[in-house]
């Protein structure tokens, strides 16, 4: 797969959603005021993006920054905001609750002609052809897609309570609870636009509410909000981001320790052992069968099978490479620690070689120190976990986005300073955008087929990983037990000979007492090294996690098979799939943050 620097540098994009009243609750006498307020928001947003792009040219692609409005184009607020977006030179994407011929029945002839004009101008049109739960549910589903597609929600709202299910007030409350910024434009045209956002709180609430959320003047706060949402991270995170998006990357490096350990314990057959991680092209090829079915779905399909595939491939390949190097480093450290003890004790048996053995022991100790410092300087475990997190986020984005779920705020609290992984995943999601599709039965079957295929792939991986990790842990535990048994036998034999014969003679020309000392000191040291490998490698817990995840995936697969085919149900199953797969990354973080690479001891 060919790659350029622009494949990895995301296009600077900001996505607005729109919710609001329809006539008669929306008085069309205020149309010009509302349209002007929306246009002002879009102009400020475009100016802010241009400033950001100029300040961070090395991070963003060379393509012009984009402001996009995602709208259902319902009569009233949606149409007014869409007209303002187009009039200010910005793009719109349409998310319709029904196919166009059905949706047209909700409009008068003149109003539909106005909406049709904007549909023709939209760069993407998605429609939901799933009415199994009724019309109200279809409008709610479209509203949730608009939320999932948006960084900022514009709400043209009269400030009054909801008058029914799925109304503007409910959508605003859901957005606030998701820590999604909301710009409230007064539907009566009496108050200036106001920003509602949990990120304005000094201490961000866990579950912000519409009544309690902090408010600010939107005209003053918007540039700062856009910078908080779109500006790349700084400090160490900026360095990590720059490293990831660099045009060229070296090929995976060879590492022997971990592959040899898996082969020696029988966790993997020798024929399947590789000392190098797969390349980015290999990783992209593994994901491609799950993205290729959507290749014809407009520009979304092109991006999904282009830059998104490249980014996943690089993240996955680097995660595998860093994991292999980190694991090999600590296996090598413990193995060399055992070797250092062996060399120190060997002087008891070969005293004439004592100087040489001490020199070799010193060399091994220096190699352990150098290996530890190199691994920590390279920050191997952090690089592994960050890139694994990013790869899983991008893999799940490829699975959720065909249902319109970019989920730009799903995994965030109100923080204005996300780490580079969250920032990059969000920037990639913004750029990917809305799928061009009609969510009819044939399309939903295709989505379900892709989800089942991914679940089957992950089931196979986790079942195999659970078996390998349990087997390796068992073999290492067994070897440690045998070493202690050998120590006990040596001690008992020495005592029996000492008390029975009074003196322990030479064995193969070596002092019997020295040989026993050698064995009884070396074997426990080797057992301790094996224990260290087991604890650092987390074999038992990793196997248990994989077994638990395969069980959860199996249950999800059965449920997905049994479900009636519907958009809402698939969206819920997709969300659950994301929870299961990201839970493993979170558990890895917890484990390796408490067990960094240190000197054996």
Q: How many strands, which pairing sense, and closed or not: the largest β-sheet? A: 9 strands, mixed
- The total beta strand count reads 11
Q: What structural category characterises the helix and strand content? A: alpha/beta
Please state the CA-atom Rg, rounded to the nearest Å.
Answer: 30 Å
Shape: elongated
Strand order of the main beta sheet, please? 8-7-6-5-1-2-3-4-9
Helix content: 55-70%
Which assembly state applies to the chains in this document? Answer: single chain
Can you characterise this structure?
- The model has no long low-confidence stretch (mean pLDDT 90).
- 62% of the residues lie in helices and 8% in strands.
- The protein is of the alpha/beta class.
- The protein has a nine-stranded mixed sheet, sandwiched between helices. The chain has a two-stranded antiparallel ribbon with strand order 10-11.
- The protein has helices spanning 5-8, 31-55, 77-87, 100-103, 109-121, 135-148, 168-177, 218-230, 235-245, 257-264, 280-291, 298-304, 307-349, 354-377, 380-400, 420-432, 441-501, 512-537, 539-562, 567-594; strands at residues 13-20, 66-71, 91-96, 124-128, 152-157, 182-186, 194-196, 215-217, 437-439, 506-507, 510-511.
Features:
single chain, 601 residues, alpha/beta, 9-stranded mixed β-sheet, two-stranded antiparallel ribbon, 8% strand
Short summary of the structure?
By secondary structure, the protein is of the alpha/beta class. It is 62% helix and 8% strand. The strands form two sheets. It has a nine-stranded mixed β-sheet, sandwiched between helices. Strands 10-11 form a two-stranded antiparallel sheet.
């Amino acid at each position: 797969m060919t790659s350029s620097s622009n494949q990895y540098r995301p296009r600077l994009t900001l996505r607005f959603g729109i919710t609001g009243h329809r006539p008669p609750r929306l008085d069309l006498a205020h149309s010009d005021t509302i349209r002007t307020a929306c246009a002002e928001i879009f102009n400020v947003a475009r100016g802010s993006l241009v400033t950001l792009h100029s300040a961070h040219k090395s991070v963003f692609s060379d393509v012009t920054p984009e402001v996009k409005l995602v709208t259902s184009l319902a009569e009233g607020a949606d149409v007014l905001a869409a007209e303002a977006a187009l009039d200010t030179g910005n793009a719109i994407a349409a998310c319709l609750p029904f196919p166009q011929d059905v949706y047209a029945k909700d409009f008068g002839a003149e109003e539909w002609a106005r909406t049709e004009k904007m549909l023709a101008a939209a760069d993407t049109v998605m429609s939901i052809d799933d009415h199994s739960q009724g019309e109200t549910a279809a409008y709610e589903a479209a509203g949730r897609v608009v939320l999932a597609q948006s960084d900022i929600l514009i709400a043209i709202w009269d400030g009054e309570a909801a008058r029914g299910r799925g109304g503007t007030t409910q959508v605003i409350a859901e957005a606030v609870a998701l820590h999604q910024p909301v710009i409230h434009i007064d539907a009566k045209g009496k108050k200036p636009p106001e920003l509602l956002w949990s990120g304005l709180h000094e201490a961000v609430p866990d579950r912000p509410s519409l009544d309690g959320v902090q408010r600010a003047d939107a005209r003053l706060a918007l540039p700062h909000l856009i910078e908080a949402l779109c500006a790349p991270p700084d400090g160490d995170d900026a360095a990590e981001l720059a490293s990831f998006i660099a045009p060229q990357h070296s090929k995976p490096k060879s590492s022997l320790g971990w592959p040899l350990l898996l082969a020696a314990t029988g966790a993997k057959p020798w024929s399947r052992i590789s000392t190098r991680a797969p390349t980015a092209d290999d990783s992209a090829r593994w994901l491609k069968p799950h993205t290729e079915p959507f290749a014809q779905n407009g520009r979304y399909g092109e991006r999904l099978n282009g830059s998104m595939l490249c980014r996943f491939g690089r993240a996955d390949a680097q995660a595998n490479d860093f994991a292999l190097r980190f694991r090999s480093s600590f296996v090598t450290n413990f193995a060399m620690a055992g070797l250092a003890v062996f060399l120190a004790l060997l002087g008891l048996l070969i005293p004439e070689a004592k100087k040489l053995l001490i020199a070799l022991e010193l060399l091994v100790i220096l190699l352990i120190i150098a290996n530890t410092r190199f691994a920590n300087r390279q920050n191997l475990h952090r690089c592994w976990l960050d890139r694994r997190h990013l790869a899983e986020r991008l893999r799940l984005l490829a699975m959720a986005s065909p249902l319109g779920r970019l989920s730009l705020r799903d995994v965030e609290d109100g923080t204005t300073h996300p780490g580079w992984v969250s920032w990059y995943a969000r920037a990639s999601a913004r750029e990917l955008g809305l799928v061009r599709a009609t969510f009819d039965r044939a399309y939903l079957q295709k989505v379900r087929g892709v989800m089942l295929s991914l679940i089957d792939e992950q089931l196979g991986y986790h079942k195999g990983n659970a078996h390998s990790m349990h087997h390796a842990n068992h073999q290492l535990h067994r070897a440690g037990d045998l070493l202690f048994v050998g120590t006990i036998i040596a001690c008992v034999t020495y005592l029996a000979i000492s008390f029975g014969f009074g003196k322990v003679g030479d064995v193969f020309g070596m002092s019997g007492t020295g040989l026993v000392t050698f064995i009884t000191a070396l074997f426990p040291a080797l057992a301790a090294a094996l224990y260290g490998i087991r604890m650092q490698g987390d074999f038992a817990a990793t196997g248990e996690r994989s077994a638990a995840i395969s069980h959860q995936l199996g249950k999800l697969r059965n449920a997905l098979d049994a479900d009636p085919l519907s958009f809402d149900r698939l969206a819920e199953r997709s969300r659950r799939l994301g929870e299961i797969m990201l839970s493993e990354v979170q558990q890895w973080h917890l484990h390796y943050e408490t067990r960094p690479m240190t000197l054996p001891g």
